[in-house]
Amino acid sequence: MTTTVLPSANIDTILRNTPHRFPFLLIDRIEACEPGKWVRVIRNVSANDALLPKVPLAQRVMPQMLIVEALAQAAGSLCHYSGMMNTGRRSIMFFAGVDNCRFLRDVYPGDQVVLECTLKRAMRGVAKLVGTATVDGSLVLEADLTAVVRDIEPEPSLL
After folding, report:
1. 16-47 pLDDT, tens per residue?
2. Domain residues for 41?
3. What gap in Å lies between CA 21 and CA 14, rounded to an integer?
4. Model-level pTM?
5. Are strands 38-44 and 91-103 parallel, antiparallel or unpaired?
6. Total of domains in the chain
7. Is residue 140 part of a domain?
8. Closest CA to 101 of 79, 78, 138, 129
9. CA–CA gap between residue 157 and residue 159 (Å, rounded)
10. Nearest 5°: phi and psi at 59?
11. Does 26 fall in a domain?
12. Is 5 inside any structural domain?
């Protein structure tokens, strides 16, 4: 059995496949993805980031909930590439749950966060995923995520 790992995707590809825009787009590059299985995404944290608190530079940290959101956006990319989004009609994805979330360290400007998500199960538009965020191999966050995909345009009538 052959597995297909997609090549990396830059910001242009990400923008075509996600509704998020600056300043709330929290992923910079899809490093690799095996549809239906896993994705690895990069987030570069900058001191000039609009979402970082405006405190002295030495005290700036990326808010923990934004790390969760970045992980959710990475999971959304995996769901997109896994074919969960309806190509014939417009679909929307939202997150229905974050469980077993553990924060283990802070993320600072200059850090490169590697976000990895694994699809555990997908059925009837509901996906269960597990994800981690790391910086330099050190675990920052781990969580179980639940995503839901729904069509926002009605199915064409058969009349």
Report:
1. 666 665 766 788 888 998 988 999 999 999 88
2. 11-151
3. 10
4. 0.83
5. unpaired
6. 1
7. yes
8. 129
9. 5
10. -105, 0
11. yes
12. no
